[in-house]
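Why does residue order matter? Because the sequence determines the fold. Keep that principle in mind as you read this record.
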Amino acid sequence: MGMEKNGNAEGKLSEYLYPPEILKRLDFSKSPAKFHPKISAVDPGEDWMIVRPLQRSDYDKGFLQLLSQLTSVGNITRKQYDDRFTKMKHSGGYYVTVIEDTRINKLIGAATLTIEQKFIHNCSLRGRLEDVVVNDTYRGKQLGKLIVVTVSLLAQELGCYKMSLDCKDKLIKFYETLGYKMEPGNSNAMNMRYVKPLY
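Structure:
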């Protein structure tokens, strides 16, 4: 489980970050999001698109370049990527989900679900939506909505009691159409950033 024939010229096996079978169980009718035409993780609307977990081989499919459309990534080597992939997989609780354009073997969308283990609410799980990005050239195909709904339903499937996110003010309406709500008296995001020393 967690391995699949990649389909590239070398026919390498590529390890998944989490079992892809989970995505097949997601029920898109549970989401308040409206898709026109209807699409889902199993049927993303084009035969050349696939929604799947991040693979170790996605270093070569533009994953880091895609993330750089969102924020600063840095110059991450293959070894750094492999080490982080391994740590995320072994620690559990990381569900990086991607959309691939199989015509060009490149990633065009991604979002991350991280799951926190809690003592509150009877030792429940809380999901956090992070690092949502869709390649600019693929606008108008509902991919932002697709990747967010996929990851949100994934959190529900995995037993999370709630899913949270931080977003820019201009994106609040978008997330509200997908079922997210600002909670009165609890809608502030505060951060403390640490400056990393340069080595």
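Residues 1-13 have pLDDT under 50 and may be disordered.
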